[in-house]
Structure to design on (99 residues):
């Protein structure tokens, strides 16, 4: 069922389309359209470049993460051994019931 609201929306959309078409036929409109196409092309080129670099980037992240793990792992292991070694033979403090 088509009511007046839907019909008005259609007419306004059609009017906007006609106005845009007329504007794009002017010299200023053509210039704006060419600039828009140029910017879209630049964005596409930039996105393709980023896509090409992704495997290298993730490989670099993997290597840096691995290096950081190798660097800090012995220190973390030593700290855990000291902590656990200090706890051996000790009984934990009694837990007081909550009222």
């Amino acid at each position: 069922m088509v009511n007046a609201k839907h019909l008005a929306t259609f007419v306004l959309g059609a009017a906007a389309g006609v106005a845009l078409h007329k504007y794009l036929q002017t010299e200023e409109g053509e210039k704006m359209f060419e600039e828009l196409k140029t910017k879209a092309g630049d964005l596409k080129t930039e996105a393709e470049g980023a896509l090409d670099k992704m495997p290298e980037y993730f490989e670099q992240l993997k290597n840096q993460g691995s290096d950081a793990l190798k660097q800090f792992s012995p220190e973390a292991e030593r700290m855990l051994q000291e902590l656990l070694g200090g706890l051996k033979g000790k009984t934990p403090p009694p837990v007081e019931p909550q009222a």
